[in-house]
TrEMBL record:
Highest taxon, organism lineage: Bacteria
Residues of the signal peptide: 1-23
Lineage: Bacteria, Pseudomonadati, Bacteroidota, Flavobacteriia, Flavobacteriales
Keyword set, alphabetical order: Signal
Protein name listed in UniProt: Transporter
C-alpha cells in the first residue's frame, strides 16, 4: 500500500504540475486510445468473448480551451487468435467564447494473436466530421473541430517480455479534411487571430511507441505506469490567402507523454479504470488542435 500511495501521489503531482507548463502538450490522433494498443489489453476478455467499455474524459488544451468527450467501445474475441474492436467517440470544446460539440470518429480494427507474447493490429479511423465547423460564416480552427476529418490507416504490433509491455503503431491519413481556417480572416482583436492557419490542411502521419509495466497492488487494484513517445513524421501543410501551399514549420517532431492507469476490479465481469496523462516534451507547432496539457479519463467495463 505504501508503494501504491507513492506511485499514485507521483502521478497526481505530475498532473498538477502540468497546469504550470503552458508550453507543454499531449498530442495524439486517437490511435493510442484503442483497446489493442493500450496496456493490459491481453487480459481484457480472458474468460469471456465480449466486452463493452464506456468512458468520459476531460482535458486542458492550447489557447485556453477545455475539452470534454465520451466514447463507447465494443470488443469481440472471435477465437483464441482473432478479435475485433469498434469504438465511437464524441468531443466538445469550450474557450474564447466559442463552444462546439460533435461526433468525432469510428475506430474499427482487427487483432491477431500470433503467439502468447505477440499481437498484430490492423484498423481504420473513419471520420464523422469533415473538420469544417464554422461560426458566423467564418471557418473555425482545428482546435474547435470534433474530428481531424481524415480517413486513417492504423497498423500496430504489441510484444510482452515477462511483465514489460511494448507497443509500436503507425497512423497514416489516406484522405484529408475540409478545414478552411485562415487566421487573417479574423480581426486583430479576436483571440482566434493567433491560431495556426489550416486552410486545405494536409496532415502527416504519426508513429508511437508505448512502454508500460503493470504493478499489482492487491487482488483487485492494479497500477500501470506508461511512457508514450509519438513522432509526427513530416511538417503539415496549409494553403495561404494567396492560394500558395506552405509548410507549417516545426510541426514535425516528437511528443513525449506519461500515463498512469489505475484499474479496480469490482468483480470478474465489471471493472473501473482511471487514466491520467501529462506531457514531458512536445512539438513547437501543433496545428491539429490535439494538444493537451493534461487529460483525465474514467472508464467502466463489463464483460459477458
Amino acid at each position: 500500500m505504501k508503494i501504491f500511495k507513492t506511485l499514485l501521489g507521483t502521478a497526481l503531482l505530475l498532473l498538477l504540475q502540468s497546469n504550470y507548463l503552458s508550453a507543454q502538450g499531449c498530442s495524439d490522433a486517437g490511435f493510442c486510445t484503442i483497446n489493442s494498443l493500450q496496456p493490459n489489453n491481453n487480459d481484457s476478455i480472458k474468460a469471456y468473448h465480449n466486452q463493452i467499455k464506456t468512458g468520459i474524459f476531460f482535458g486542458k488544451a492550447d489557447n485556453s480551451i477545455s475539452v470534454f468527450g465520451n466514447y463507447i467501445e465494443y470488443n469481440r474475441q472471435i477465437n483464441k487468435k482473432l478479435g475485433v474492436d469498434a469504438k465511437l467517440t464524441t468531443l466538445a470544446q469550450n474557450g474564447n467564447d466559442v463552444s462546439t460539440f460533435g461526433l468525432s470518429d469510428i475506430f474499427l480494427n482487427a487483432n491477431y494473436q500470433a503467439n502468447k507474447n505477440l499481437k498484430f493490429t490492423l484498423g481504420a479511423k473513419i471520420p464523422l466530421s469533415d473538420a469544417g465547423n464554422s461560426r458566423e460564416n467564418l471557418p473555425l480552427p482545428m482546435d474547435y473541430q470534433s474530428s481531424l476529418g481524415t480517413f486513417d490507416l492504423i497498423v500496430g504490433v504489441g510484444y510482452e517480455i515477462k511483465k514489460l509491455q511494448l507497443v509500436a503503431a503507425l497512423q497514416q491519413p489516406l484522405t484529408q479534411n475540409d478545414n478552411q481556417f485562415l487566421a487573417s480572416q479574423y480581426p486583430a482583436s479576436s483571440a482566434l487571430r493567433g491560431f495556426l492557419s489550416t486552410n486545405k490542411f494536409k496532415r502527416s502521419g504519426d508513429i508511437l511507441l508505448r512502454v508500460s509495466y503493470p504493478l499489482m497492488i492487491n487482488s483487485k487494484i492494479r497500477l500501470t505506469p506508461s511512457i508514450l513517445p509519438i513522432y509526427h513524421l513530416k511538417n503539415d501543410r496549409f494553403t495561404n490567402q494567396n492560394n500558395v501551399e506552405q509548410e507549417i514549420n516545426n510541426s514535425e517532431g516528437l511528443t513525449l507523454n506519461g500515463n498512469a492507469y489505475l484499474d479496480y476490479e469490482i468483480n470478474r465481469r465489471n471493472s473501473i479504470q482511471l487514466n491520467v496523462g501529462v506531457p514531458f516534451l512536445v512539438r513547437k507547432s501543433r496545428p491539429d488542435g490535439l494538444t493537451r496539457s493534461f487529460i483525465a479519463n474514467v472508464e467502466y467495463r463489463i464483460k459477458f
